[in-house]
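Lecture notes, structural biology module. Today: joint structure prediction for complexes of two components.
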Amino acid sequence: ETGVTQTPRHLVMGMTNKKSLKCEQHLGHNAMYWYKQSAKKPLELMFVYSLEERVENNSVPSRFSPECPNSSHLFLHLHTLQPEDSALYLCASSQVRSGLYEQYFGPGTRLTVT
Amino acid sequence: AQSVTQLGSHVSVSEGALVLLRCNYSSSVPPYLFWYVQYPNQGLQLLLKYTTGATLVKGINGFEAEFKKSETSFHLTKPSAHMSDAAEYFCAVSGGATNKLIFGTGTLLAVQP
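The predicted structure, tokenised, for the full assembly:
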């Protein structure tokens, strides 16, 4: 595997379900990000992990719970979601403070909440 | 604080015509600027970036962008559009102590045969 991978690619869940999104980066980076992309809205940064420590949480509802067990893996645990949470969830990684400023994105998980 | 404005949420060009996608930024520190492309049902792919040095940067797929500090702009161009260029394009800015990216709202490029 190369780059940033995300699983599953598609997920349909009911409002009472609990599920998790997984992201893995194979680039040796030390920072990882979760974004939410909804139709007709700007890309929203949800969480930032730098050196496995959460450094940013942009007022995301508690029904979204991130986990970063190591620098290569990032999870987004979901529970009791709402229909408005349906969106494309993108994971990204980068190397902070090395001069490599760009972020590399995974293909996303298309989430539908019914 | 940093921000990005992309003028035109939809741009349509004919195949073979010039592509020009506009991006203006605001930044209190020297900016790092990026263009990303997103094809349907895919993640964002880095097209090109400006950090320091030469103000005209070349990217993949024949795209280039010019950093103009006096105009606070970083417009994306391609001399001749191809059908495969149809996608959504995002301009982004970062700078300062972290490399958090601030994205624009995106421009959807349509290429007509």
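Point to remember: The longest strand of chain B covers residues 87-95.
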